[in-house]
Automatic annotation (TrEMBL):
UniProt xrefs under SUPFAM superfamilies: NAD(P)-binding Rossmann-fold domains (SSF51735)
Assembly information from the UniProt record: Homodimer.
Keyword Metal-binding annotated: yes
InterPro entries in alphabetical order: D-isomer_DH_CS1, NAD(P)-bd_dom_sf
GO CC list: cytosol
Annotated organism of origin: Pisum sativum
GO annotation, biological process: formaldehyde catabolic process
PROSITE patterns: D_2_HYDROXYACID_DH_1 (PS00065)
Designated name of the protein: Alcohol dehydrogenase
Domain of life: Eukaryota
GO molecular function terms listed in the Swiss-Prot or TrEMBL record: S-(hydroxymethyl)glutathione dehydrogenase [NAD(P)+] activity; zinc ion binding
């Protein structure tokens, strides 16, 4: 990226860090409705991208495989959607309340094997 007089602006992940205001490349920006509540919209810029991207690009589940998701906030729900997009039948089939178990990780393992 560069400023209006052609000086290169140092960037990392398309975001400038040596600026008085945040600078983002136009290709990494999305217009939102000005009436949208920013405290809700901000979830889309991080949680959804993180959960969806981690599932599709890192975990890469194969169709028919099991996926364990720990937590069903924005990241967890996006991970479930990423699994669906990757070919897994969508549907969260089991819920485990960690307060009901001494070792919830072992309980989850028995569901996914």
């Amino acid at each position: 990226m560069s400023n209006t007089v052609g000086q290169v602006i140092k960037c990392r992940a398309a975001i400038a860090w040596e600026a008085g205001k945040p600078l983002v490349h136009a290709g990494c920006a999305a217009k939102i409705n000005p009436d949208a509540p920013l405290d809700n919209v901000c979830i889309l810029s991080c949680g959804i991208c993180t959960g969806l991207g981690a599932t599709i690009n890192v975990a890469k589940p194969k169709p028919g495989s099991s996926v364990a998701i720990f937590g069903l906030g924005a990241v967890g729900l996006a991970a479930a959607e990423g699994a669906r997009i990757s070919g897994k039948n969508f549907g969260v089939t089991d819920f485990i309340n960690p307060k009901d178990h001494d070792k919830p990780v072992q309980e989850v393992s028995s569901l996914t094997i």
